[in-house]
Predict the structure.
Amino acid sequence: MIFRVLVISAIAFLLSSSCRQGDNSAADLRFAHPITVPASPVSLTIGRDVVWVASFDAGVVQRVDIATGELVGSPIAVYERQTAGVNPVAIADVGDFVWVLVQGTAEIVQIQAATGLPSGRRVKVGRFPVAVAVGEGALWVISKGDGTLTKHDLETGEMLGAPVAVGDSPVALTVTHGAVWVVNQAEDSVLAIDPATMTRRGGPIAVGSLPRAIAAGADSVWVVNRGDNTVSRIRADGRVDDDAAEVGHNPTGIAVGGGSVWVTNFADSSLTRIDEVSGRVTSNNIPVDQFPQGVAVSGQTVWVSSLARSTLQRVEF
């Protein structure tokens, strides 16, 4: 009888310890009530005082106040007049304005940050554009339809130089000092492009299966691999760490901030947190709204967009 009691007590202790460890992994996080935004928020970027949200199905951009979490003004039409096929897929902040990447018209469209109105600047890019990023004094766009990377003037959007071939299936990019990193999904690889010469720095860097997204940290770039549910770490010199971090199912988005790497797991409706120094997962099942897609970090807050609910959620750490 005594032995049975001891066994039951030991099991109870182990179960309670396990639960506490799982809870503690997210115990320092605070969750705000999700904010409703226009339909299909696919991309986020952090501005001076707002989060910019690009909504694919609604064909608009929405501002959200970083301090209060409240909507700022009405949704912003990407074009002054309604245009067929207006599907914003990505957005990049450059201070006084943002550039919105519109897939249906294959253009980048400039919106003024102060007024929230289109400036009238629209620049054609490659076929079926999928991602945009800012860095090294320029705006960068990758177009999946023709497998190219293009460099643009930050203010005017004018293309600088000729497009560069980056493989058959470029899907994401990020910019660090001295390199533009382009994810090629079909080849399970990443290319490093010299931003000054627009030439490749070495050959393709092998990562996990079906890489989907990429983000830059302090001394590494981090790649989300949708095919094997992992995150690869690429060092500044192009070396890839042997042990990829295991995350949730169908990871789609990634951002770096606050000493952590944050990954949205689409199928699990969860968020994974990875320590930026060690590369180890510190929490793998942080619950967020259904089918998370976009993710961005401002200060001590992670912003996560939900495709299913058309919401934006704040997670404070």
User: Anything to note?
Assistant: Residues 1-24 have pLDDT under 50 and may be disordered. The two ends are 46 Å apart (CA to CA). Helices lie at 2-24. Residues 2-24 form the longest helix (23 residues).
